[in-house]
Design a protein that fits this description.
Blueprint lengths: L1 H11 L4 H8 L3 H8 L7 H11 L4 H4 L5 E3 L15 E3 L2 H40 L2
Parallel strand pairs: 1-2
């Protein structure tokens, strides 16, 4: 659970395990164990992660499902218990969407390149077939 949250924030900010491990002053393999739930996050690590991702450190310490609550519009009449919620800033979601857009663009570029390569190979095979 906490490992999933670690991975979510890291991927959303387009960071590598190595770069987050450096912030925590640990090795990449140790960070990987944190992300895979094999190790538990220490208080000082949660504090550094909270600063890195601009969230409450409790997000990384609580071993239960965490809900990301991002309010859009006016919810002044909404009543809810927010004890186990945290507010994710809009920039986090924008960076996720930007990354998805870049990946889709790259996939479209790759698709076009593969189509051209396929056409080139088809032309070569047709030339050999006609000989």
């Amino acid at each position: 659970m906490v490992g999933d949250i670690l991975k979510f924030f890291r991927v959303a900010r387009n960071l590598t395990q190595e770069s987050v491990a450096e912030v925590l002053d640990i090795s990449q393999s140790t960070y990987s164990e944190l992300e895979n739930g094999k190790l538990k996050i220490k208080e000082h690590q949660a504090e550094r992660l909270a600063k890195l991702y601009d969230v409450n450190r409790a997000v990384f310490l609580e071993d239960r499902n965490t809900v990301i609550n991002h309010n859009v519009g006016d919810h002044s009449r909404t009543v809810m218990n927010t004890e186990h919620y945290f507010e994710a800033d809009k920039e986090l979601f924008i960076s996720i969407l930007d990354r998805i857009d870049k990946m889709l663009s790259q996939m479209e570029s790759d698709r076009k390149e593969l189509a051209e390569e396929r056409k080139f190979l088809r032309d070569i095979f047709e030339k050999f077939a006609n000989k």
